[in-house]
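Bench log. Compound arrived from synthesis this morning; before running ITC I wanted a structural hypothesis for how iron/sulfur cluster sits in the protein. Inputs:
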Amino acid sequence: MKQTQCPYCSIQCTFHMVQEEHFYRASPNKQDPVVHGKWCAKGMHAHVPVLGEERLQTPLLRQKGKLVPVSWETALHWFQANVRRIQQEHGKDAVGVYGGGSLTNENAYLLGKFARVALGTRYIDYNGRYCMSSAAAAANQTFGIDRGFTNPLSDLPHAQCILLAGTNIAECQPTLMPYLLQAKANGATLITIDPRKTNTTKIAHRHLSIRPGSDAALVNGLLKTIVEEGYVDWEFAQAHVDGYEAVVTHVRNICWTEVERITGLPKEDIQQVARTFGQAATGFILTARGVEQQPNGVMNVRNYLNLLLLTGNIGKKGAGYGAVTGQGNGQGGREHGQKADQLPGYRHIDHPDHRRHIADIWGIPESELPEKGVSAYEMFDKILEGDIQSLIVFASNPVVSSPHVHRVKAALRQLKGLVVVDLFLSETAQMADLVLPGSSHLEDTGTITTLEGRVTLREAVIPSLPGTKQDWEIMQEMAHALGKEKGFRFVNSEEIFEELRRASQGGVADYSGISYQRIRQEQGVFWPCPSENDPGRKRLFEDRCFYHTDGKARLVPVAHTQPQEQLDRQYPLVLTTGRITQHYLTGVQTRRTPALLQKASEPFVQMHPATAEKWGVKDGEIVRITSRRGTVELRVQCTDSIREDTVFVPFHWGEEQCINRLTSPLLDPASRMPAFKYCAVRIEPAEAASHKTKELAEISS
Ligand SMILES: Nc1nc2c(c(=O)[nH]1)N[C@H]1C(S)=C(S)[C@@H](COP(=O)(O)OP(=O)(O)OC[C@H]3O[C@@H](n4cnc5c(=O)[nH]c(N)nc54)[C@H](O)[C@@H]3O)O[C@H]1N2
Ligand SMILES: Nc1nc2c(c(=O)[nH]1)N[C@H]1C(S)=C(S)[C@@H](COP(=O)(O)OP(=O)(O)OC[C@H]3O[C@@H](n4cnc5c(=O)[nH]c(N)nc54)[C@H](O)[C@@H]3O)O[C@H]1N2
Ligand code: SF4
Ligand SMILES: [Mo]
């Protein structure tokens, strides 16, 4: 009976794989230090697709328009010739790399090294740009460090008030729910902020059904009450916070009528929530993609952090912030160099000392280390402009997960070489010139950093499946094909981790004191952990010292900005997109899991009965949803749990059911994260619409 970890969300529940005669069965691990034997249906069945018939077990190469099985030797030979030709003709930057947050720390680290050392390209970024980047930027700007949770999860039950903004924990991190329920049992008040009633809002004492895209304005209302009714922790602010005076002045001048108009919420409700939070001895704020995947996601989060810090809720048991991380290794994946502007240990690629440190570890002159590239979605611009000619996609499915996918597909079609490393023939892999079969959670040993900053070790439970290779082996073989042997001779993931430790030493995300042995003995170790004698920092800022050079946290006034995507007569409704409990991200794994697909076989558009009536559509019927970029037909699901001005669609399906045909490619100016949660649409009966004049063209630019 071997222990593994779920490949899906950031909680990383552990369980045991039991081998029966002809199959494997998973059973929960009661000794799990975080979830104590809890799991959800996704984890329970996670091994099914990866051991199933659709798992890729041979490289596939496009020949005469078709993907055909080839040997690894042929595959790597094609790869070598293609990269060499493109780089000779167009320069090193003409090959880009697109990574993923399901990769282990070792694989994420090696992918960054592969891009910068073996390919020598500046263009590397990853799907976490779509996921956590606004929260990460906000935390870096405010605290000087980005660790999703400032406190361990075990602190949550000690909070007296928990504000849950744009986070649907019940469906997205179900095994975190016991922490919220325990807090409630201990007397905490739970407050949710979401345009929809969800299984999460159901357990809350108060729910603010906010108009999408208006969190910054709502928080200004909360702050105004906090300031005017005397809930500011002045002593803390004066000693430890820079910029608080400007925030105080700003919110004093906010006009309530404006706040009510923008948020769609009555002043009294906002004031009550502010008083509850202000009066609580300990308060916690959790934000997730509802707040962050917005045109102003970074500033939204900064305003929630203004609220947290003006009330002094940090560095204490039960008081802190959590950006509820999404992907299994969403946290670690953004610390070790998959981001365009970043080097391992959360170092900056444009900082001379940081560059030198990493160049020394990698054994190259600092001058050979490429400069900063561009963010994930902007890589598609670079392809369309002809700067990137070949792209290597490692563990991501951007033709389903990107905004405005018609444009992304057009970009990928223009490439002279699309290489996809995946477990399945995903929608992106179907477009590839070369597909390489990588390793799943069952086969690849490596570390994963969970949402609370705990570095865990997921050990392989079975050997590589025939025909497949470990993800890190694939990176090494690609490097060797390009004539780069030095620095790519690791024989197992532990050796990669040992180099990662040294690379991260002295960085903000310092892992140098963590070893496989310690992780095994201590059930995970929290970062930062700068030496083997350091227990690891479970709760940050206990000493009231933030990570900026002056030791202070930084606050800034936040003004509401009108979303650039306008609602008008043609596009009168807000479309927001997100998740349902049975499926994971683009559904590549969960749509191949019969037990999950049976429960949720197709996407739907959730809307209020009054909205359905107004636009002449009925519950259960297929309707056409159209935005300025495309159109999709889906079944209506009427419910009074959503605002009348908003519709919701889950994004777990591809092709003609892909809601990202509609979404807006608008990026947050600082984090470059797309605004998946705000798109103007209209709804009409599908039949009526098809009789109309030419529908909005499925534009590709
Ligand atoms: N079942 C399942 N679990 C998952 C995943 C999955 O695909 N399926 N994915 C994982 C990943 S990678 C991630 S990033 C997380 C995501 O976890 P969450 O962020 O919790 O999930 P979402 O459904 O994207 O969005 C959360 C909520 O934001 C609300 N919202 C929309 N607009 C606004 C707004 O303007 N303001 C506010 N306050 N709220 C708004 C939506 O109604 C929704 O209920 O989940 C992880 N867990
Ligand atoms: N409309 C809308 N779009 C969204 C969002 C939204 O809320 N609304 N959310 C965004 C968010 S938060 C995220 S995180 C992104 C995610 O977007 P994607 O990166 O596209 O996510 P996945 O569906 O997880 O794709 C991962 C791919 O990698 C493969 N894979 C999984 N594990 C491994 C591995 O260990 N090795 C290898 N080689 N392959 C592996 C899987 O089979 C799958 O094909 O989507 C974003 N897109
Ligand atoms: S999806 Fe998340 S909550 Fe469910 S078993 Fe996996 S790690 Fe646990
Ligand atoms: Mo995510």
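What the model suggests: Residues 54 and 62 are 19 Å apart (CA to CA). The longest helix spans residues 72-90.
ITC booked for Thursday regardless.
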